[in-house]
Design a protein that fits this description.
With about 400 residues, this protein is an alpha/beta fold. The chain is built from 14 helices and 17 strands.
Length: about 400
Amino acid sequence: MNKSFLPIILGTDINAYTMSVSFHQQYNIKPVLIGQIPMWFTKGSTIIQDIHYVDNLEQSDVFLSTLNDIKNKYGDKYEHLILIGTNDLYVKLIISHRDLLKDDFLFNYIDDHLFERLYYKKHFYDTCEELGLDIPTTYFHSCKADESFNKDISFPVIVKPNNGVEYYANPFEGMKKVYKVDNKTELNNVIKMITDSGYSDELIIQDFIPGDDTYMWDAVYYGNQEGKGEFISFAQVALQEHTSTGIGNYTALIVRENKVVMKKLVEFMEKIQFKGFANFDMKYDERDGKFKVFEVNVRQGRSSYYMTQCGHNMAKYFVDDLIHNKNKELTYLSCEQVFSVVPKGVLKKYVSYKNLKEEIIQLIKNKKYGNPLFYKKDKGIIRWIMMVLRQINYYRKYKHSDWKV
């Protein structure tokens, strides 16, 4: 019998919605959300009990007082409150205030030290090299340095911030999530533009691995409270967002299985005693036949719902682990499914690799396809209309894409 519990989800975006769907599908429970901005992914949803919008939620005092209010409002009604973050900022806040939260909320996250080791790319890449994960050739450049970047490297390269929190705190015209540059002059111009914005941390300058969206790969991992792996997946990206600020956000994936790579990722995570959900971003490098890791997010990703879609509900991993203390055997996901948050027509038109496109069309015909934004039990009519409009807008977005490999 399930003990009484309520999920408290931090965020209002796609990730928050797919987590809400997972809880509703598995337990018929409506979570409570906390966020800063109303977003149509979650606004007006009938599978969400309540959404608390709080300004300055990223500030520790506001964060703690908000959760104290949540505890006072719901704590007497439920035996357990499960706390779940849907972006790095909220996860970091949970981790940093673990000792103040652990008596009132259940959660499964790593400690501060391991968060720093994985979140900051320099530390993460050092850890990958130490423990045997393949990564792209990577350099770091301090924006505090007076001199320009002068290492002898091959172009093109990708440039991105080492510290995303500081980077996005200093917005500027022409800001992108990542920059692809083709020569040294262009590289130093990008460095200057970012430095002039006020960003003072390091920049990552990384070998550009050739290949379109379909060369990108995703993996979801869950480690229980003891740091033991219970789930690993592997999926090929069919499409990602093609706007300058959206690159790296996947819009469609097809679930695969590669035991060699999956086992390697599990071994890495168990060595560092990772706890909770994680989401790997990788790219296949056909030059040497290796899958190279770009980053690991210390939470489920916005596309991780494909594991729920394949019968391994994300919410159930939290509940079985945190409430029932039930240890599971490691699952290597094996499932034929297409996950997508874009229309089927966009997939048929804009997936570039012909064989993959044909496979996706066949899986759609076989009803092995899902878009979690249109959950049938969510009766929010206005939300549904907004999601339809968003789907229509994807045709325009891909047609006028400003991202080229």
